[in-house]
Amino acid sequence: MKKKIFQKIILDINGFFIIVLLSIGLIIWVIQAVNFLDFVSEDGHGLNIYFYYTFLNFPKILSAILPFVFFISLFNILTKYESNNELLIFWINGIKKKDFVKVIIRFSLIYWVIQILLTSLIVPASQNKARSFIRASTIDFFPSLIKEKKFIDTVEGLTIFVGKKDADGKMFNIFLKDQIDDFKSQIILAKSGIINVIDGKNYLSLNDGRIINIEDKKIITFTFKNTNFNLSKFATKTTTWPKIQEHNTYTLFSCIVNTLSKKKILKENFYLRCGPNFYYEVIEEFLKRIYLPIYIPIIALIACFLISQSKENYYYSKLKIAVFSFGILVLLLSEMSIGFAHLNKFAFIIFLIAPFVIYTVVFNIFKSQVEKI
What we know:
Layout: H1 2-35, H2 38-41, H3 47-56, H4 58-83, H5 87-92, H6 97-136, H7 142-145, E1 158-165, E2 171-179, E3 184-198, E4 201-215, E5 218-230, H8 249-261, H9 276-290, H10 295-303, H11 316-337, H12 345-372
Antiparallel strand pairs: 1-2, 2-3, 3-4, 4-5
Helix pairs in contact: 1-4, 3-6, 4-6, 4-10, 4-11, 6-9, 6-10, 8-9, 10-11, 10-12
């Protein structure tokens, strides 16, 4: 009987959690997707890259809101059960409030594991995959990027100016500068041109113009009737080097071990510039993935304060406000604390023991409140 009672409340929590997580996650995802339109409108990537990139950012959104949604789910279901007198079923069947809390905390460990899997495995993999699409992308949307009487420098080393552009995409009075390297550049002036796709690559087909090659302060000029300028060789200005949060957890761990030992004990990733300048950022990201989820059982315990008093109690409405506020405060402080963990050894120790101190204090307060009843 007791097992079935707990199964029902756990199913209710899980059901509410999934609905809210997906609802909030999709809202945030849509907002981010609108912001990511810059990849197409300003950076020149194709729509396929845009959709891949936005889709692969969904796990990151879920991991960011999971602790908050879990706390809201517990808070809502426990409040609902109290309002409907369903919590009485637990007490009538001889379930003590301390035992009830222990079951909820054990249940919260499932979400603790899920969060660690998300932050340490799934999110870094999806973020790195998203960045790999950007890294391998060519500039597919040159036609939409080029506008009349406007200098376009979306891509690295290339500047384009067009005096006029008609409805068919044909351009007139074209200025193009290709900065090949620090000492070599090429300027092309053409009366007209149009972007064509040749063998799957974008080319700017130019007519009636002049090419000016500048190398080591030497200038060579010649004219042309028709020429094709390869646009596909240019890369976007979008960051293609993986950020720290996009590296897998083993790479971060390798960086930490090798930095502390001052030896290359573990293999490092080529894309991670592991050194003193990045070490603290690596530590912060590693702790965020592995250690911060420990706060999930703590917010589960905080939510359980709702069962310490019945709805008939005069202070019950104030208790709900206090529990909700304290739970949100703990979540905010947990996120903020990660930024102070690397300041010094004392701050690091405080960061590590803080969850255990909070849990112990909160549990003892709960225990004393229950024993008074």
